[in-house]
Design a protein that fits this description.
mainly alpha, Serine Threonine Protein Phosphatase 5, Tetratricopeptide repeat, four-stranded parallel beta sheet, 12 strands, Ankyrin_repeat-containing
Length: 1250
């Protein structure tokens, strides 16, 4: 009692006397809403834990966290804010505003002068080009251009497509129909009339190259006109802006005074930029949040309502449901969790203030952003040196004389025509090049040749009487069509026609015509600038070192700074905005400082970070919960969904017309099915909202069954509802509101099953954490720790040392839980004397498996029982013969309530099921002391307690290293490591493998152990040790321990995890080892194994397999007996009671191991094609064991498709059995290895079961 008071006082002080009763939650409108509310509590608390974890290990940035909570895109918010000097920006804004307001109005038009100076500056950049263009010699380029342009456009070869088409019809079209016949006959007069012109064109083809040489001389010449093009680009703005540029002459006199007034402000470019950056970035932070609809929830997936949900965590931890169902009324552990989250709790109140400040910024931000004065004034001001400004001021008074000399051009130029002509010259260059290539192809084709073929063809064509009937002319036509020479000529004409068409597509003739019109503009462009003095003026400006670009910036700046001065006199919003930003920044820095100074150091030591729910689990739960909320909205509108689904056929016919790609009938059926699914979901929620987290979380699995509708729901609002509302048919029009409502809901869930599955899995992980955390209750501290605490209290230094003592108790709390839940801590469990199986006889190993604890319970010896538990006997170890029970089951069966209570208080798991798939509490309801036993179970309902572990450390290790006697390679790495290890740890090395706690096997380069009985059967037999309590180690453990030289390195890290056989890998070694170490129900319990032909197998292998099977708890027929056809167990009436394998529901209760299926068929054909029997070879048996699948639905809670619901009946009719397909013989390689000749063996010595 005293101990509990002291501990409660301590935890109360740690919690700051802050516990308050939680306000009752308002009733939910439906069971689904209630489930969502409760899952939201879990989501928020879990998210808070993940955030606290991230803050503790500094993996989570506070700025990113705040960005999410305030709906700002990651990286666009507080990472900006912390870099801004808001105080400097505010003071600078006030100072600049004051100076700008004091400026007198300028007599200059700043904007216009800035534009004039820009024109002048742009031309100044091209002064060297202007000089080069003025003196350029373009005579040769112009001569070649004019030569090309002088070519008569009509002499460009024309198309011969008409002739080609007629020839093609005549020679290629088949006599198929009246229409085809007519086309062939019609082509004859065309050819008779048009072949003469074709001959002229083709015979003149060789002369085309000579005729077109003048055009081809212009190839690659257009680039010579580039300088003229650049000249035009400079001349055009000069001509267009001359009057404006000339006005600068008078303005330069006043510009000096303007610069004197504005340069002092212009020099503050760094301050101006700083002000602009602070205001624009601050505006961006605030405005992004108000417009961002797709903000990430990667860090805060549990906080759907963002800051509001952050505040809710404190009340969540005090809510009745969380305290009762999650914390199982374990107030002490709950207080530890609250202490762990204390930094998050402090931060949450600061976040609320940040949120309020941030929200108040949005109206003023929108107001400032709409005016945008600061952006206009301060954007990208140049940082100009004082020397440059001084030069500019000096040159301003001198440059007026330069511009005085400028004169207007005397020539009128149409610059549109100039640009067109330059473009035409470039295209003509390209066209000339293409034409040259095509003309050469036509010449090489040599269609006309010496003219003989053409003339012969022409003569034969003209002989045909085109007006005669087909019967008369067909013979002549067919004779010509059969002439291969004529056909080749027609093909060449077709090819030439294609080339002629490509020449036409170059547009050469059009280019010659259009370019000729305005060539004079190009020839005269060099004279345009004569007598304008432009080049002289630009050189004068250059000599005076006049920076027109800087002058333009200053003029523009002068206009802007005066506008800002006027605006700033009435601007209160910007200063207020900056004050609020400064407040926001200070709050942010306060949060960071608070976290740095008050990081939960004690609490982080109390909870193992590796055991906390990770961010991914929180995200998965948040995503699933968000979808569940969407489903609940659909459920809330179920009446509307029902109305829409009940719409008449004409309504859905109209929907079909509107959405052509949607099957309206399917839509109707999907809506009705969704209503049924939602009703089922509500019913499920109603049955589970009062249960624990894992039961409630199963709602996600249920929700994954809702596929919804496949149509995009937004289409149901527009165009469906919109169109229905305009219908003249009243029934159709009345349906519009329902479909409009459907359009606002999320209806398609077919692609979200994985999201619901992920949420379901996250619930399991989160429940495991909470179940483990809220397990120790008030029973974790020892008397010694209380005495230490009391001594400190009596010494009068309680307040000074309370933090250290709290840390001690919290550390003890978590260490006890870590030992209880971490399988690594129990990996040597079965090697200790307290957990050794006490075997009555060597032949009953598989039938009698008890540790001393089991015997003490059976003998009802409380003193021995308590000593076993206190010394660390495994309170969850299964014992038995044909049936297996935990100590808790046995104590219930024996009717021992005091035994039961002591077991539970010391970590016995009340959720373990025995070999009959019964829980201890179920068994308690069937025994004599039912009421007493059930009272004990109810007393500790929902609580978990740590168990004690026996001491077993490296000093207890007994290591045996595998040695191949044939291996004499003393230089191998394994040999060297083994030898050195044996010397260094001589006291721990044993000679017999049977004495070992650890055996070492050489692994391959991938870290796995490979077994091949064809190479080394002694090594192959090491397989048996994977199914014993021995720890099988990689040889790399030797090397690592040698390197340490004092201690064994952690054996868990070097335990064999994977074995390979016949190119197949099995990564189940650790799973198997844990199963055996924790004395769980043997893997082959419930199985009978028949060893067929084992008398003919080598004795070593036979014994190896028999011993291995005995270890695994099955019943082995060692005499080689086989199943009997007339065995009464095989009768169909016995199906319900017939036993099966405990761990698997996808195989039968009989395993037959045989090296020859062929000989087995001869003896027992009825065992084939029957799900009662599994037939394997010796090697397949080993692979089957290493698969180590546990999938029985009574263990996993989920029935797979492979589950056998009913045993096949055994066919006793020989005639029908003979019709079955005989298995293909696959003799095991065992024959080749051991020289066994099974082919001559008839199996007569096998004794059949009667």
């Amino acid at each position: 009692m005293k101990k509990n008071l002291l501990i409660n006082l301590l935890l109360l002080m740690l919690n700051g006397f802050q516990s308050k009763p939680a306000a009752p939650s308002p009733p939910s409108s439906s069971a689904l809403h209630d489930a969502i509310d409760k899952l939201s509590i879990v989501a928020r608390v879990t998210n808070a834990i993940t955030i606290q974890k991230g803050l503790n290990d500094k993996s989570m940035k506070v700025d990113n966290l705040l960005d999410e909570l305030l709906n700002i895109s990651p990286g666009d918010g507080f990472s900006y804010l912390q870099s801004l000097d808001v105080k400097k920006a505010k003071e600078g804004y006030i100072g600049i505003a004051k100076d700008a307001g004091a400026l007198t109005k300028s007599s200059l038009d700043g904007a216009k002068n800035a534009q004039r100076l820009k024109h002048l500056g742009d031309m100044g950049k091209n002064v060297e080009m202007l000089k080069k263009a003025k003196d350029a010699d373009l005579k040769d380029a112009i001569d070649k251009a004019e030569g090309a342009l002088s070519f008569p456009a009509e002499d460009i070869p024309s198309s011969i497509e008409t002739y080609s088409n007629s020839l093609n019809v005549f020679f290629e079209l088949e006599w198929k129909s009246a229409d085809a016949d007519k086309k062939i006959i019609d082509s004859i007069p065309n050819l008779q009339e048009k072949l003469d012109p074709l001959g002229i064109i083709l015979s003149g083809a060789p002369n085309f190259e000579t005729k077109l040489k003048s055009i081809w001389s212009f190839i690659n010449q257009s680039q010579n006109f580039n300088i003229v093009e650049h000249l035009g680009e400079v001349v055009e703005p000069y001509v267009n802006s001359f009057s404006e540029i000339k006005k600068l002459t008078g303005d330069f006199k006043n510009m000096k005074n303007e610069f004197l007034a504005t340069i002092p402000l212009f020099k503050q470019s760094s301050l101006l930029n700083s002000i602009e950056e602070s205001i624009s970035k601050s505006l961006k932070i605030v405005l992004i949040a108000s417009s961002n609809s797709t903000s990430s929830h990667s860090l805060t997936s549990g906080f759907l309502n963002r800051i509001k949900d952050v505040q809710a965590v404190k009340d969540d931890l005090k809510s009745d449901w969380f305290v009762e169902k999650i914390a199982v009324n374990d107030q002490k552990s709950l207080d530890i969790l609250k202490e762990y989250l204390s930094a998050f709790d402090r931060m949450s109140s600061q976040i609320v203030e940040i949120g309020a400040t941030f929200t108040s910024l949005q109206p003023s931000a929108k107001s400032i952003n709409s005016v945008n004065t600061s952006t206009i004034l301060f954007s990208s001001q140049k940082d100009v040196s004082p020397v440059e400004l001084e030069k500019l001021q000096k040159s301003v008074s001198e440059v007026g004389g330069c511009i005085d000399k400028l004169l207007e051009t005397t020539m009128k130029v149409n610059f549109d025509e100039f640009r067109d002509t330059i473009r035409n010259l470039k295209q003509l260059d390209v066209a000339a090049n293409q034409t040259k290539s095509l003309i050469k192809k036509i010449a090489d084709l040599n269609v006309y040749g010496d003219g003989k073929v053409f003339k012969s063809l022409l003569a034969d064509i003209k002989k045909i009487n085109a007006t005669a009937s087909i019967a008369i002319t067909k013979g002549q036509i067919d004779a010509m069509r059969a002439n291969e020479t004529y056909k080749k000529f027609a093909e060449k004409v077709a090819t030439a026609s294609k080339y002629f068409d490509e020449i036409k597509q170059t547009g050469t003739s059009i280019l010659i015509r259009d370019t000729n019109k305005n060539m004079s503009i190009i020839k005269n462009m060099q004279d345009v600038l004569k007598r304008t003095n432009l080049i002289t003026t630009l050189e004068c400006l250059k000599d005076k070192k006049f920076d027109s670009s800087l002058a333009s910036d200053l003029m523009k700046f002068g206009s802007n700074i005066r506008a800002f001065g006027v605006h700033a006199k009435n601007d209160k919003a910007t200063i207020s905005f900056l004050d609020q930003i400064s407040k926001l920044q200070n709050l942010y820095f306060s949060v960071k400082k608070s976290l740095d100074e008050k990081r939960t150091r004690r609490a982080t030591g109390s909870i193992d970070p590796a055991k906390l729910p990770n961010l991914l689990a929180s995200q998965d739960l948040g995503k699933g919960l968000n979808l569940l909320r969407q489903l609940s909205k659909v459920y809330d509108k179920k009446n509307v969904v029902s109305t829409a689904a009940s719409s008449t056929d004409p309504v859905f016919a109209e929907v079909q017309k509107i959405l052509r790609t949607t099957d309206a009938l399917s839509l109707k059926l999907e809506l009705k099915k969704m209503l049924l699914n939602l009703a089922s979901l509500e019913s499920f929620a109603n049955n589970h909202t009062g249960q624990g987290l894992r039961e409630l979380g199963a709602i996600f699995e249920k929700a994954s069954e809702v596929s919804g509708v496949t149509v995009n729901s937004s289409l149901l609002e527009d165009p469906v509802a919109k169109t229905l509302s305009t219908s003249a048919v009243n029934d159709i029009k009345k349906a519009a509101p329902s479909f409009k409502t459907l359009g606002s809901l999320k209806l398609n869930y077919a692609n979200h099953r994985s999201t619901f599955k992920g949420a379901s899995l996250s619930i399991v992980k989160i429940d495991e954490f909470f179940s483990d955390f809220f397990a120790a209750g008030g029973n974790i501290e020892s008397e010694d720790s209380v005495l230490v605490y009391a001594a400190i209290s009596i010494g009068g230094v309680l307040l000074i040392t309370i933090g250290a003592v709290a840390g001690y108790f919290i550390w003890r709390h978590i260490q006890e839980k870590k030992i209880q839940n971490d399988p690594n801590y129990s990996r040597h469990n079965g090697l200790t004397i307290q957990n050794q199986i006490r075997v009555p006889g060597p032949n009953d190993y598989n039938r009698n498996r008890y540790i001393k604890l089991h015997e003490a319970i059976r003998e009802k010896n409380y003193e021995t029982f308590k000593r076993c538990v206190d010394e660390g006997a495994d309170v969850n170890a299964f014992g038995g013969d044909y049936e297996f029970f935990t100590p808790l089951h046995m104590a219930v069966q024996e009717g021992l309530p005091n035994f039961v209570e002591y077991l539970i208080r010391n970590g016995a798991d009340v959720n373990k099921i025995d070999s009959n798939y019964q829980l201890p509490i179920e068994l308690a309801g069937k025994v004599e002391k039912r009421d007493e036993l059930l009272a004990v179970f109810n007393k500790f309902k929902g609580k978990k307690f740590p168990r004690k572990f026996p001491k077993f450390g490296p000093e207890n290790y007994k290591v045996w290293c595998y040695v191949n006697e044939l291996d004499k390679d003393e230089t191998s790495e394994y040999y060297i490591s083994r030898t050195e290890f044996s010397k260094l740890y001589a006291g721990n090395v044993v000679r017999k493998v049977e004495d070992a706690t650890h055996i070492v096997l050489p692994e391959n380069e991938n870290g796995s152990v490979t077994f091949d009985y064809t190479k080394d059967f002694d090594f192959y037999k090491m397989i048996a040790y994977f199914f014993k309590k021995t720890v099988v180690m990689k040889s790399s453990w030797l090397k690592a321990s040698i390197k340490d030289r004092k201690n064994f390195v952690d054996d868990y890290k070097f335990q064999v995890e994977e074995v390979c056989m016949n190119s197949t890998s099995f990564k189940t070694c650790r799973q198997i080892h844990r199963h055996v170490q924790e004395s769980r129900i043997p893997y082959l319990t419930g199985v009978k194994v028949h060893l067929h032909l084992f008398k003919k197998i080598k004795k070593d292998l036979s014994k190896f397999i028999k011993d291995l099977l005995s270890e695994l708890g099955c019943f082995v027929y060692t005499t080689g007996t086989l199943p009997h056809l007339l065995d009464p167990d095989y009768a169909a009436t016995n199906d319900k009671n017939f036993p099966s394998m405990y761990h698997r529901d996808d195989i039968g209760p009989h395993i037959i191991v045989t090296p020859s299926e062929d000989l087995l068929w001869k003896k027992c054909d009825f065992v084939f094609h029957n799900n009662r029997f599994l037939i394997v070879s010796p090697t397949e048996l080993i692979e089957f064991l290493f698969e180590f699948k546990i999938n029985h639905y009574k263990i996993t809670g989920k029935k797979e498709k492979t589950c056998i619901e009913k045993w096949d009946s055994v066919d006793q009719n020989i005639a029908t059995r003979k019709k079955q397909k005989k298995p293909t013989e696959k003799l095991d390689r065992i024959e080749k290895i051991f020289g066994v000749n099974l082919g001559d063996y008839d199996g007569d010595d096998d004794v059949l079961l009667p």
